[in-house]
Specification:
It is a single chain. Helix content is 71%, strand content 0%. The longest helix is centred in the N-terminal third of the chain and has 31 residues, at 21-51. Helix 1 (21-51) packs across helix 3. The chain is mostly helical. The protein is elongated and about 55 Å long. It has one domain (18-166): Ferritin (Up-down Bundle), CATH 1.20.1260.10. The structure holds fe (ii) ion.
Length: 168
C-alpha cells in the first residue's frame, strides 16, 4: 500500500450501470436529505424513549425503542446506497441540520406533545422520501426507488402506531 493510497481526497467514483452521471448526483442529493431526516428523527425518537414519564411510559418506551432501532439500521442502508451511487454520504450533525426539514427540538412537555412531534416528523420524512422516489423513477433508478418505498411504508406504519397511542 503506497502513501498515496492512504491519502484519499475524493471518495466519489464513476460507474456504467445505465444511470446518467448527473442523475446519480441528483439522486444522491435527494438521499442526503432523507438520510439527514432519518438521523434527526432517530435522535428525537431516542429522546422520547428516554424522557417519557407517566402511565403511558411502558407503551411509549417500548414502541420508540423498536422505532429508533429500525431507523439506526436504515441510516446505514441509506448512506451506503449513496456510496453505491458513487457519491459521498454526509456524516456530520452540521450537515444534517442544514439538509433536514426536521426541526431540532427536544423540549416537548407532555406525552401528547412528544407523540405529536414524532408524528409530524415521520410525516416530514415520508414527504421528503416521496420527492426522492419521484426523482428516482424519472431517472430509472428503480433500486433506490424500491428502498425508499419500503422506508415510506415503514414510516406510515409508525405514524399509525403513534397516532393510536396518542388517541384520547
Ligand atoms: Fe433503551
Amino acid at each position: 500500500m503506497t502513501s498515496q493510497s492512504l491519502n484519499i481526497k475524493n471518495p466519489e467514483f464513476k460507474q456504467k450501470t445505465g444511470l446518467q452521471e448527473g442523475d446519480r448526483k441528483a439522486i444522491a442529493d435527494a438521499l442526503g436529505v432523507v438520510l439527514a431526516d432519518t438521523y434527526m428523527l432517530f435522535i428525537k425518537t431516542q429522546g422520547v424513549h428516554w424522557n417519557i414519564m407517566g402511565p403511558a411510559f411502558v407503551s411509549v418506551h417500548e414502541l420508540t425503542a423498536g422505532q429508533y432501532q429500525n431507523m439506526y439500521e436504515a441510516i446505514d442502508e441509506i448512506a451506503e446506497r449513496i456510496r453505491a451511487l458513487g457519491h459521498k454520504a454526509p456524516a456530520s450533525y452540521t450537515k444534517y441540520g442544514a439538509l433536514s426539514s426536521i426541526r431540532d427540538e427536544d423540549e416537548p412537555k407532555t406525552v401528547k406533545d412528544m407523540l405529536s412531534m414524532l408524528i409530524s416528523d415521520h410525516e416530514t420524512v415520508v414527504a421528503d422520501m416521496r420527492l426522492a422516489v419521484e426523482s428516482c423513477e424519472s431517472k430509472n433508478d428503480f433500486v433506490t426507488a424500491d428502498m425508499m418505498i419500503g422506508r415510506m411504508a415503514w414510516h406510515e406504519e409508525a405514524i399509525w402506531m403513534l397516532n393510536a397511542l396518542n388517541a384520547d
